[in-house]
Amino acid sequence: MKTILYIVWALYVAATIFSLVHAVRRTRRQAQLMADWPKAQATVTGSTTGWTSGVGGSSRNLRYYPTYQFTDQRGTLFMGKSEVSLVEQPLPGSLIEVAYNPADPNESLQVSSEPRTALGCLIPFFAVFAVALFWFIGVFPLG
């Protein structure tokens, strides 16, 4: 029976590592793109809503994704939607910083350190959780 628990643990660890590596690569790629792209002040025009996943028995929470508009260096107006979620609904008219692709200004990203901060917290959490699960499997009494 413990063998099955160790196999499930190994699958969990493999899936977690795969997900974290994918998230780190995506965040790094976006940061590299934004470093080379021009920045602009964007005006929040509203927001769309979404829900947190509720994984791990936590309750689902409503999140807000700002929609915005900005002008490029030539003065052309573009619109975008942030991938950075907020707990509170953003106020229309407030300003956020965005970086946009000069070759295609329709591609823009909100400048934020939140994704890197979240990854910095998630990686140690999952490492400690995996070690705790491994220990628990070892001491779990199977009769």
Automatic annotation (TrEMBL):
Keywords: Membrane, Transmembrane, Transmembrane helix. InterPro entries: DUF3592 (IPR021994). The keyword Membrane applies. It comes from the Bacteria. The chain crosses the membrane at residues 6-24, 118-140. Residues 40-108 form the DUF3592 domain. This is DUF3592 domain-containing protein. It comes from Arthrobacter liuii.
